[in-house]
Structures are given as structure tokens and as C-alpha cells.
Amino acid sequence: MRYINFDKTTVYSKLKEAASGTGGFDLCQKLNAERVKNCSIPIAETLIYNWAAKKAGNDIISLLQILSDEQELISKYKLLLDGEVMNTGENRRVLHHLLRGQLGKDVIADGKNIGRFYKEELERFSKFAEDVRSGKIKSSTGKKFTYAVQIGIGGSDLGPRAVYLALENWAAKEAAAQSIKAKFISNVDPDDASAVLKSVPLEETLFVLVSKSGTTQETLANELFVKDKLKKANLDPSKHFVAVTSETSPLARNSGYLDSFYIDDYIGGRYSSSSAVGGVILSLAFGPAVFKDFLQGAHEADKAALEPNVLKNAALLDALIGVWERNFLRMPYTAVLPYSQALSRFPAHLQQLDMESNGKQVNRSGGKVDYETGPVVFGEPGTNGQHSFYQLLHQGTDIVPLQFIGFNESQLKDDVLVDGSTGNTKLKANLCAQIVAFAKGQANSNPNKYFPGGRPSSLIYGNRLTPKAMGALLAHFENKVMFQGFVWNLNSFDQEGVQLGKLLTKKVLSGESGDDALDAYSKLLEI
Amino acid sequence: MRYINFDKTTVYSKLKEAASGTGGFDLCQKLNAERVKNCSIPIAETLIYNWAAKKAGNDIISLLQILSDEQELISKYKLLLDGEVMNTGENRRVLHHLLRGQLGKDVIADGKNIGRFYKEELERFSKFAEDVRSGKIKSSTGKKFTYAVQIGIGGSDLGPRAVYLALENWAAKEAAAQSIKAKFISNVDPDDASAVLKSVPLEETLFVLVSKSGTTQETLANELFVKDKLKKANLDPSKHFVAVTSETSPLARNSGYLDSFYIDDYIGGRYSSSSAVGGVILSLAFGPAVFKDFLQGAHEADKAALEPNVLKNAALLDALIGVWERNFLRMPYTAVLPYSQALSRFPAHLQQLDMESNGKQVNRSGGKVDYETGPVVFGEPGTNGQHSFYQLLHQGTDIVPLQFIGFNESQLKDDVLVDGSTGNTKLKANLCAQIVAFAKGQANSNPNKYFPGGRPSSLIYGNRLTPKAMGALLAHFENKVMFQGFVWNLNSFDQEGVQLGKLLTKKVLSGESGDDALDAYSKLLEI
User: Fold this and answer.
1) Residue A220: which of B52, B418, B447 has the nearest Cβ?
2) pLDDT per residue over A132-168, tens digit each?
3) pLDDT tens profile B457-473
4) Is the ipTM of this complex over 0.85?
5) Contact residues, chain B, for A503 at CB < 8 Å
6) A387 given a catalytic annotation
7) Number of neighbours of residue B420 by Cβ within 10 angstroms
8) Which domains does chain B possess?
9) What is the 3-state secondary structure (H, E, C) of B43-96?
10) Looking at beta carbons, which residues of chain B come within 8 Å of A366?
């Protein structure tokens, strides 16, 4: 396999030329019904990607196909699936796809079959969740658990939380009565844990402690915060805690927990929603069958991402168009705009997924790159965002590429007709209207009411936000980010950029910062 | 008063020169204790702005002072306070400061003294809130109201919600037992209203309907959604609804509501948290005295923002440094990073405040500008963000200016000692460590572990996030955005960019879009 910097590919200069020439597809003039019809690619059975309103016509797509081939994106994906060490900096395999099903060779490592290990853990925590849900495993006071509180931060929080919120309403409608509600504690700010604990009945609450290393500062502080409260309420912490960690962590096989479920170093934090990190809390809340449907949706998307033709591979094309926008149309951000209140925290997960994976300036072998890498990602659900930051998106001096998400049906199907349309129809009408308004703009003799248009967007859509659709959505973005990392020749799977802050924090806490500016700041905040 | 485009000022080219020369203050080399000590400016009694870690030394500050004088920023602020028509596009005064106290002339308009009108409304809804809190005003079933649910979107949602969340824990600790909890419904997605209604006891819930025009699509759809549910529960909607609107709206003096409280056209949505839009729900939840403290804090910040010396005016300097970063250091975004879980939704409010105010490409008289205006704003609370997108902030190819916020004490003061420090101390140590890590970076022979530094940040800090501090924080950013609008010669107070989407949505809903691409999208989503 060949690993070369993006600007050393032959197609790089051609893309640059194309950008300074036509600048890609003319959305204002050429976005029409035929293009909308022709630009859909399935992500999975439940989800479709439409790129009609992107600034890429046949000329650009052909160049992006060459780029994909030249940077061997599909072959690199296959290597990753086969268990190659793709996380070069940390010398680790990258195996989150394997959590959802096998698409490559058997991966044998650390003396075991990793795929089998993942499956065994899935079955173990599925059974545990069933036992808690049925009341077979009870709280220390003999009561049935009615709340599960996840304690974790970063990847142990954002992904599982986003998926929980995404499926909470669906489950309320479709699954057997949801017997366990989930909450999340993440921040080291003690106000976070304190407020969450005030909102749950302690004697009926199971805490899911999640830390791969078992040494995360915030998570351990919050664990002790909670245990202190349990003890003060005369509850036995060991009957209220379950751990998700690695087998080598101090939390593993520890009698302080009801049980422990394992992941390994091949599952990065931001890629861990499909593992026990997301699986324990989601199986407790919705039942293991729902979590398995979620995995199935993700697996379908992983499979579809193997297709080498960019016009048939949604994640691949999404990635390549993102590169086109980032490096050649010079747009340094992307907004994710789900028209679904259930996806309210999905943009926050994508922020981590994308910015932590590709926000880097050295390539996979440590050389500094001479081109821009990962963009800033932000977003809020529509229609809320329309009444907030869309002003800048429509009429600001810079162009922000957009990624819309929408569904035909609502989750709860609880709706009323107002002025001849349901809320759900209004939601979808707004979504379609925005895409076209951004793309085509509007002439007006009053410059204040003039919309330049030419503002690109894509649309991911499906029938309904079900567990399978949510799995596919999550995997789509994981694979998109992976392909972009391959294009940019990055290691998307480490995060060295978080280390310096940790180091300096320790120095402050030990009273030996060794830096007078740091001491001065500590004084301002009365540390 | 002179209104000229930013690039027509004499200082513009000098700033440009400075940027291509030294590029401003060398953070890696020169950030030290003395600078940290010397760069604090009070925002109000409860809050301080520190700009030590910004890329601006004496040379740049002098140029920014010239810019402030040349664009007459303080004089324009005074004009605004005096009731001049600063919202030129809509021919309106801009009077949100007057909600918090008078700093300019008496404003007489529409045949009345506007300051007096605001004060009367404040007293009216204060009394109403007291009567509900005391049980004098009861629900239709004779029960005491225990929940208040705000129905509004955009400015009627984001600001009030952010402030409510910011003060919820403080109130739980400090105020008399909080008798009324607040929730919010905003999205036209029916899953939003449906889920919120499932979480409250309808017979004890008061709904606060907020729409200045009384015609907001989402808000009216949600009103009817809720009224339908009330009727089905045999509850009289008119005994469960109060309205916040303008005196000319269909919601005013309407027997369908318990009462109505008024704002006028001089209060923009995103500037309305200090009016009845925020005041009714916050006074219901925390009591009117708390809301008045919040106004007092904002008023202090407004007053401090009158100072012409940039080194003594926090909002002014924050604004000018933001312009320096946006137009000359060419950083198209800003991240807001509050180290306080209570401020979890404050960045979402700032997104609207900033991006809707200054995300524009024409000046206040309609001419196209030739420079960049408002940046993209995003953010999440620390320490959560550290485990998410900080990788890109530390080691990404582009530099994102940062705005940290922190407090000496937590709100709930419920904490435990772990490894010799409390959660609150850890939180603050992380904050200080991050500022220095971003500014100074770290050399390393392993390029993957190298931190370039030179990444600018400011710090807003105070003793504790109280109602007064929250008011000052809100007003600080409002005034910052106002000053930046003056620099860029924009009208920061209209939002024409939201209109085209509304228009096209109506066309879709009426079945006559007149655009085949729009029809094709509508088909994809089965409208």
C-alpha cells in the first residue's frame, strides 16, 4: 500500500485548477428536478444520501473518483477491516467495524480471535441488561432498577448520549414500556453530578462507569462523588455500579462492581458507541434487541462503504466532496443540521468524531502536511437553527457547507393539523425550502433582501429515525471521516493533541506548574 | 455621526500591515505573570475580562483605540441608548439596554415614555409571577402550578433557556425552595412538544406562549398542539396559558390567555432575554427578585461599556480584538468554552446573538462590503470539550480563537476531595492549563506530540455564576456584538436572511412551489 501526502497526488493540481476555473457545479442555474432524482445513493436499507445541491458536477466527480483510486481509499479501508495497524502513532489496530459484524479476515491478536471476543462481550452485557430489566438483578435495597446513569466523558459520553436521545422517543412509542431511563454525568464540574443525582431515586439507580484506561480524571472523580452519596444514603456502592473498561484496567474484575464488560485498545473512544461503552446503557434502556438492530444498521452502512465506485458509495462520496469543499473551495467549516429534535446532540458527537480524528497537522508518519485537514463542525436541529444562525449561512460573507438530515415520519406520531398541515409536514417543508433557498438564492433590488445562493448542502434522509437508521447514520459519518483521513494521509485514530492540557493540569494540581503565567492564571481563579 | 465602511478607515491599512508584519503579540515567548496580572478589565461588579493570551500587544491595542475612535463606537452606542433609529433596515430603535435601566435620554415614541412602559411591564409580570408562585393564581383544577413551559423559538427560546439552565442550580441552593420548574418547547418537529408534555403534569402546568408578532409558524403550531392535549385532558386552555407578545399582535388582550405581557418592536428577538420574553419564565421559576438581580448585572455591564478607553472597556476591547482576529489574522470562527456545566446552552445562545446580528454582507445602507463580517461561533462546556474537539484546537491546521469562561466557586457547593483536590479545583486547574497550553504550546522531537502554541484565548471570570454575574455575561456579549457591528458598518439588528426560507416553506405547504427542484425534494421526503 502507498501512503503519500494529498498534495503529492497527480489529481491534486487538477482539482485546484477546477476550483479556480468554474468552481464546480452552478447551483443557482442548474439545480433541477432531474439532478435531485439522479443524485441519491443508499447508505443502508434505511437511509439515503443525496448530493444534488453540492457544487460538484460530472467533471469534479470524475476527479474525485481518480483521487479515491490514487489514494487507494477502498483498499485502505479493507486493510483496516483485516486488522492492519492503522493507528500508527499508538501502534494499534482499528476495529470498531468488527463490533457490528465481520467484513474482513479473522483478526487474531493478543492470543485471541477479536471478533469472537467482541461477540462474547455483546452477549454478556445483553444478558446482564435483560436480568436488570426483568428485575432478576436488583438494587441493594431489593428494588427494581428504574434509572441507569452513565459516568464517562468524551467518547464514553457524547456518542452514547446522542444515540440514547435519538431513540428515547422511538422506544417510548415502539418498544415494550421502557422500564429504565438513562441519564449521563460527564463534566468534572461537581455541579453536573450533583444536579443529576438530585433528579434520580438513588436506591433504584444503576451507575455505568465507563473508562477504557480506568484512569480518566473526570470519570474517577465523579465515581467517588457518586459513591460518597450512596454511602451517605446507606446504600452499598458495589450493588449499584457496573464497569465498562479494558481487561488490563484497575476496574476490571473488581469486586467493587456488580459486573465488568470489556473493550480493548482497538476501539477508540469516539468510535466506541457500538461497543459495551454504548451497548450497556442502551441495552439497559431499550433492551438488547434494540441495540442489536442499531448494530445491524451500522453494519449495513459499513458494507456499502466497500464499493469502489464513488457514485455508488455514499460515505466515500460524502468524504470526497468534503475534501473538495475544504481544500479547493476553501470552506473551513461544516454545519450538520438534523431536522429531528431527537438528533439534538448528534452534532456534538460529530464534533468529536470529526475534529478529534482529523484536526491534525502531521501525517501518519509524523511529517507536517502543507494543506488544510479536518474542518470545524457545528450544528443544531432544524427548525430551531433557522431562527438562530441561519442568517449568517444565507447572507454571511463566507460560505459554510451544510449537511441536512431528515425523515418522512416523526418518531412519536403524535401530531396535530394546523392551517392544513401537520407539524411533521411543516418540518419537512422547511427542510426542502432551506436546501433550495441556500442553493438558488433570490434576486432582489433591495440589497438587504438579496440572497446570493450557491451555498452547497447535502441531504441524508430516511423513512423514520429507527434503531437501524440511527446505526447507519452513525456509521456513515465514521466512514466518511475515515476516508477523509486516508485522503489527507493522517492517522485519524490517535489524539495526541489532548495530552499537553492533561499534563499541565497535573502540574497545577501538584502545586508545581513551573510556569509563571500558569501560576498567575491559577491565582485569578483562586486555586 | 459618520458611517463609513471599515476598509475606508485610515487605520485599516495599518492593521493590515501589522498583521503581515509581526502578526501581533508573540504568545509562545512573551505570555508571563506580569501580563496576566495587567490585562484584566472589569465587566461589572461580578465579572472580569482578561485578554493576556490574545495576540495583541501595545502596538495593536493603540491601533484598535484609533479604530474605536475613528468608527466612533462609543458615540454610536450613546446614540443607540438615546433611542436613535439604529435598525435602519426596519426603521426601528434598538432599546434592549433600556430594559435594564436608563443610560441615555428619555425615549418617547408611539406616544409614550418607552422606559416607563418597560418598567410597568416588568412590575406587571413580577406581580403575576408572585401570584402564581404563592398559589393565588391557580390552575383550572384549583391546583398550584408546579411547572412552567415556554413555547417559543429562536430568541424566545435560546436566551431564556440558556439563562434558566445557568441559574437552575444556583437557585436550588440559594433561593427559597424553587416551587416551579421550567421546560421549553421550540421545534416544529412534533416529537419535541410531545416529549415535553409527557414529562410534566398537565393539570399543574402553566404555558408561556412567546411570539412578538403572534404569527410565528412553529410557535402557533405548538400552541395548538398543547391546547389540543389540554382539551383532551378536560382542562381549560385559557386557564393554563399566558402570552408574551407585542400590543398589536392577535395574542394581545385576548381572553384565551390568563394574562398578556408586552414587548415592542425595539426589542429584537435575540436581545429579548431581559424583557418579558425571558422575564416571565425566569420570574416564575426563580422569583422576580432573582430576575431583577439579573437585570442589575446586565445594567452594570452596559454602563461599563460607555468607557472610551479600550483598556478600560471589556466589551469594546473584546469586540476589537475579535475584529483583529477575523479580518487581519484571518480566523473565521470563535469558540466559546465555559468551564461551568450550568452554561451548557450559553454557546447556543451566542451562536444566534453573534451570527444572526453580524452574519451579513451589506452595510447599514445596503452597500456590499468588501471585508469579512461575523464569524462562525460554536462551543461546549469544559472539561467536556477537552475530550472532544480540542484536538483540532491544539493541533489542527487552522487557528480558532477561544473565549474561556470560569468561576472560582461552583454553584451547588456539593463536592468531594479526590486525590487531594475537589472537583471544582480540578475544573479550574484544567481551565488554566488549557489557556497556557494553547498559548505556549510545547516542543517535542516527536512531531505527533508537538504543540505549536500561538493559539489565542481570553478569559472571563468571576467569583460565582450568580444572577448578577449571568446578567453581566449576557450583556457583555450583546455589547461586544454591537461594537463589532459598528466597526463593520452593519445593521446588527435586522435578520433579512431568514425570510427566503419562510417564503419557500409557505409555497411548499400551499402546493405551489414554482420550482421543480423544490418539488423533487418534497417528493423525496413524501410531502
Assistant:
1) B418
2) 999 999 999 999 999 999 999 999 999 999 999 999 9
3) 999 999 999 999 999 99
4) yes
5) 433
6) yes
7) 9
8) 109-289 (3.40.50.10490), 497-527 (no CATH)
9) EECCEEEECCCCCCCHHHHHHHHHHHHHCCHHHHHHHHHCCCCCECCCCECCCH
10) 446-448
